């Protein structure tokens, strides 16, 4: 039996995503169009299905959508869908405090767990007095226990500061 070597190229993965990104930008070889809020996004089924449990199930062998030319996604916003598609095609998730609810909703709906994890890190790392209540609500809505716990701790700390500033007696 001949011996062999198994070698890995980390640049191959990057090149593969770059190639799909270029094809998408040129709307070349796109085989499905996603629609959200009246905005249309030409895409590649293979990339979507390999990156999302939702699309894997949607384009499965026994679904009507497996051959459909377009798929409507009324539960998510165009901004959220665009951010998740950009992430699937590039590995980069564009996120800000104002865009967070739409991006997180799209990531959860489309079952892109890596994007959900990035949103969780964004919230946990960026917790402060101005956003802790908003982040707590988002975390509770999306069942993100670790973020909810961190947000609630931040709320408790900030409440202590507010009470002290207001001259209130606080025990505990």
Automatic annotation (TrEMBL):
Q: Which residues fall in a coiled-coil region? A: none
State the source organism's domain of life. Answer: Eukaryota
Record InterPro entries:
BTB/POZ_dom (IPR000210), SKP1/BTB/POZ_sf (IPR011333)
Q: Which residues form the BTB domain?
A: 30-97
Q: What is this protein called?
A: BTB domain-containing protein
Protein species of origin: Eleginops maclovinus (Patagonian blennie)
Its organism's taxonomic lineage begins at:
Eukaryota, Metazoa, Chordata, Craniata, Vertebrata
């Amino acid at each position: 039996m001949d011996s062999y070597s198994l070698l890995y190229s980390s640049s191959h993965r990057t090149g593969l995503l770059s190639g799909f990104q270029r094809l998408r930008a040129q709307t070349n070889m796109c085989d499905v169009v996603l629609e959200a809020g009246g905005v249309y996004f030409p895409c590649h089924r293979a990339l979507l299905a390999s990156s999302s449990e939702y699309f894997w199930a949607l384009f499965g062998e026994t679904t009507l959508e497996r051959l459909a030319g377009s798929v409507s996604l009324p539960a998510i916003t165009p901004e959220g869908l665009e951010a998740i598609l950009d992430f699937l095609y590039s590995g980069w998730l564009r996120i800000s405090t104002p865009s967070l609810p739409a991006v997180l909703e799209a990531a959860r709906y489309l079952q892109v767990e890596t994007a959900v994890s990035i949103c969780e890190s964004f919230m946990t790392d960026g917790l402060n007095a101005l956003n802790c209540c908003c982040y707590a609500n988002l975390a509770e809505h999306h069942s993100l226990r670790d973020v909810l716990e961190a947000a609630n701790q931040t709320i408790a700390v900030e409440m202590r500061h507010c009470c002290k500033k207001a001259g209130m007696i606080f025990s505990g």
